[in-house]
Design a protein that fits this description.
The protein is an alpha/beta fold and 415 residues long. Helix content is 28%, strand content 26%. β7, α5 and β8 form a beta-alpha-beta unit. It binds pyridoxal-5'-phosphate.
């Protein structure tokens, strides 16, 4: 939550959001530089491990530049994300590339940029990288992303480490993977990794991960390799509502220290959500209001095209009104998209609202703007970064003319 009220006026750091709404078209995202910086420092000071920011959570170049200035590495899942990380100057030796479906072009781009390591997710991919590396006359540092068959006790749709999930290589195949790597001469095994899902709140899950991955290190060792890096994934849980508990960094730190004393390899994590979620808000305008079957709807210009998480995961985001009022009312906040699932919050209590007022949808710094779409031919939203009492537009709102200009009508349909 980054909005604070001062004399009833909403602020992100020193910037009055009411003033922003008079000059920037809604919906737009606002991020607090201080909040991201403080969150990173808190994490870095708590745990003894390297941190790679999972770029998928928020890939805006300004956010990546901030990460770079803080000295964080990057964890990317496409050559597009890799290009972003490189373009802001994150050193290639601080970039890890993973992803369940890498194209030939993705891999070539990663090889040519000499990144720290490409994490492979299938035996087929091992062979593919070896062939590409050979044709480029290169040796390639790789990691093996394992599927440790651990349930992160999180939402089904953000679980990635159960044996039935598509991610990683089945744990039992590890000896076979090692034998393959011995044959594939262009590959240098540097590390092993896993990521079992997002929003992990229970420290016991990390204990399970650490146990399984230490076993993996032993298996790799017995099969003739000693790794340099053990990457333990992201997934640090944040609290979107009062019932949720943020993952305890104290508990995580003690656990890391008890598992990984005097190891011959370094350990790292790749959080995305934790570093940015609480540092962003989405500002939206109420387009209209109505009551259907005693449900008071506020229809806003932000919807599932701007913030997909509520429609996709039933995710909760706290919503605060920028205009106060002593009368309180129950509202359902819905977006403008022609889908019944386009609901941002159900039956929440807000000060009485009217058309033209603004709402702030909180904790939207992660998996917000990056998941926005053009559905219903809506434009992608603007993004703003605040630093003390300054702000900068870090992405302009798209123009509808730019979207339409991408379509091509074949000659035979033109008169
Ligand atoms: N690493 C990998 C491989 C991922 O797929 C993800 C997210 O899906 C992350 C890290 C970051 O997860 P989170 O944002 O929950 O920390």
């Amino acid at each position: 939550m980054t909005i604070l009220f001062n004399n009833e006026k909403p602020f992100v750091e020193g910037v009055n959001i009411n003033e922003l709404t008079s000059i920037i078209a809604t919906p737009f995202y606002v991020y607090s530089q201080k909040s991201i910086t403080d969150t990173y420092k808190k994490l870095k000071n708590s745990i003894n491990a390297e941190i790679f920011f999972s770029v998928k959570a928020n890939s805006n170049l300004a956010i990546l530049s901030l990460m770079k200035s803080l000295g964080i590495g990057a964890d990317v899942v496409s050559s597009g994300e890799l290009k972003r990380a490189i373009s802001v100057g994150i050193p290639s030796e601080k970039i890890i590339f993973e992803g369940v479906g890498k194209s030939k072009e993705d891999i070539e781009y990663a090889i040519n940029n000499n990144i720290r390591q490409i994490n492979i997710e299938s035996i087929e991919e091992l062979n593919m990288i070896n062939v590409l590396a050979k044709s480029l006359e290169r040796k390639v540092n790789i990691g093996v992303r394992l599927n440790p068959n651990i349930d992160g006790q999180t939402l089904d749709k953000i679980s990635t480490g159960r044996k039935t999930d598509k991610f990683g290589i089945a744990f039992d195949l590890l000896p076979e993977v090692c034998s393959q790597i011995k044959i594939l001469k262009q590959l240098c095994l540097q590390g092993i990794s896993c990521h079992i899902g997002s929003q992990i709140h229970n420290i016991k899950v990390f204990e399970e991960i650490f146990n399984k991955m230490k076993l993996a290190v032993k298996i790799v060792d017995e099969n003739g390799f000693s790794i340099k890096h053990l990457d333990l994934g992201g997934g640090f849980g944040v609290a979107y509502n009062k019932a949720e508990k943020e993952l305890s960094l104290n508990e995580l730190s003690s656990l890391i220290n008890s598992f990984f004393q005097n190891t011959t390899y370094d350990i790292s994590f790749e959080p995305g959500r934790y570093l940015v979620a609480k540092s962003g808000v989405l500002i939206t305008k109420i387009l209209t209001s109505k009551t259907n079957a005693s449900i008071n709807f506020l229809i806003t210009d932000a919807g599932m095209q701007t913030l997909l998480r509520p429609a996709m995961y039933n995710a909760y985001h706290n919503i605060v009104a920028l205009t106060n009022n002593n009368i309180k009312k129950k509202y359902t906040v819905a977006g403008p998209i022609c889908e019944s699932s386009d609901i941002l919050a159900k039956e929440i209590t807000l000060p009485q609202q009217q058309t033209g007022n603004y709402l702030a949808i909180c904790d939207t710094g992660a998996y917000g703007a990056v998941m926005s779409s053009n559905y219903n031919s809506k434009v992608l939203p603007a993004e703003i970064l605040v630093h003390n009492n300054r702000f900068s537009i870090i992405r302009n709102q798209e123009k509808i003319s730019d979207i339409i200009a991408k379509d091509i009508i074949p000659n035979w349909l033109k008169n």
